[in-house]
Amino acid sequence: MIEVQQLSKRFARHEAVRGISFSVDRGEIVGFLGPNGAGKTTTLRMLTGYLPPTSGSAQVAGFDIFRQSLEARKRIGYMPENVPLYEDMRVREYLKFRARLKGLNSKQTRQRVGEMLETCGLEAVRRKMIKTLSKGYRQRVGLADSLVHNPDLLILDEPTNGLDPNQIRQIRELIKRLAESHTVLVSTHILSEVEMTCNRVIIIDGGKIKAADTPTNLINQMRSAGRVHVELQADAEVASGAISRLDRVKKVSSEALDEGWTRFTVWVDSGTDARERINNLAAQYGWPLRSLYRHEATLEDVFVELTRKD
Ligand SMILES: Nc1ncnc2c1ncn2[C@@H]1O[C@H](COP(=O)(O)OP(=O)(O)OP(=O)(O)O)[C@@H](O)[C@H]1O
């Protein structure tokens, strides 16, 4: 559905996107992640034909987004970061206006606008002025707008930005439902959302792609994926030494706590669970043990590992 080859964008002296290549298959829901200024919005704006690239190419549904822009855009529903809406229009009136602008005839417009009001949960506010709507409802109007011409592909730039937790949940559910019949590329900062909704993730930083895989694979491939935390009443040096001699243990660090307790963090090879062996070791040495748990890596750990600057 999307094919991007060596896409770059330079603003004056700043290269915001540096030769990125990726693809999104039909039916996928892909999270597009990266820290502030990584180049997400710039990439999405190029993909939707709003910004010409400095070099490289991109196809949507087989159409070159720059040379066959109209054909490509017919197949894209784009919801930009801050949805620009006409404040003085009523919801239904606005969606009808947008549908006509996108080339739907009056019959199609009536039908699609009706469907979108229902799909996006806007029926109760269809006669309200847009300026009186809450941010959550405005986002829904933006989504309905991006969907009204029945595109195959939805490109959403931070659709839950600025929403409260309830609104985030509602938009997330809506996107999940839309993903049943659309291909979705969604940029967001909420990593738990991505773990819940996306079947693949692309991480971009400094204009370059750092990783592209399923959330599960990314987590499993992490260097610091395997970590065990244990609290013992033991001499830090002796215990660190004994633990680090265990098989498949890569590194041990310790931190003194209260009343002779020490917390040890044990890095092990990915896929290894050292808890039982650490427990046996504590029993063997007679060290009192009050906590032993395995840190389950999350997408947030992957994100931090791939994009931190130190
Ligand atoms: N029109 C522009 N002119 C000059 N520089 C720009 C322009 N648009 C973006 N940039 C720069 O390009 C870089 C990438 O910006 P972009 O908006 O794509 O990042 P982003 O990943 O979407 O960030 P955020 O998460 O903050 O929205 C930034 O350094 C930004 O300042």
TrEMBL record:
Keyword terms of this UniProt record: ATP-binding, Nucleotide-binding, Transport
Family matches, as PROSITE patterns: ABC_TRANSPORTER_2
InterPro entries registered for this protein in UniProt: AAA+_ATPase (IPR003593), ABC_transporter-like_ATP-bd (IPR003439), P-loop_NTPase (IPR027417)
Transcription regulation keyword on record: no
Residue ranges of every copy of the ABC transporter domain listed in the record: 2-231
GO molecular-function term, one example from the UniProt record: ATP binding
Pfam family, one: ABC_tran
Annotated SUPFAM superfamilies: P-loop containing nucleoside triphosphate hydrolases (SSF52540)
Record-stated family: Belongs to the ABC transporter superfamily.
Name of the protein described by the UniProt record: ATP-binding cassette domain-containing protein
Gene source species: Luteolibacter pohnpeiensis
